[in-house]
């Protein structure tokens, strides 16, 4: 496979689609035929699509802590307008690139997969251990984050390696140890979170397979709050 181009596809930028649906004069409009959404929608999604942004209450930090600690990840919601924009964008990139994964590889990660007879998605890595080498992962802002109160930021850590999971797709004890150690060094220390701090400044989670919109690319989600702009910039690419 040839080297991925670094030319930005302006027409596919998430900000273009988000602006379109935030400014849409009909907040109940849908960017797809009701019977044919770009990806399967849950009852929660359909309810979100029936609301305006003004009718929706964003997630607070304490609410996020509760949902993530109790494994209620399906309850994490986007602003209604953002969900509409995400659906419109998904349909667009599937038509133009073939899949969301292809868009991410070509426009956000600039990673070239190894092609072999297995057809499995894999990459050349500098170290087989996840997070051990900076060339084997990338931290990017989440272009399609959930609806948060002001001051909460959402980034995604994309990995070339797979994290160890059990038969149900949940991180193993070793998998959690790897992530915890990476999050401590990269996020908690840089955010200035003190050990034992009551509500903390950092939360991380990994969606189970059924909740992942990009299943073939390994990634974890990290939420941060009360972080200085100069620190935040290192994670807002």
Automatic annotation (TrEMBL):
GO terms of biological process kind: N-acetylglucosamine metabolic process
InterPro entries xrefs: DUF3605
One of the record's GO cellular component terms: cytoplasm
PANTHER family noted in UniProt: N-ACETYLGLUCOSAMINE-INDUCED PROTEIN 1 (PTHR35020:SF2)
Name recorded for this polypeptide: DUF3605 domain containing protein
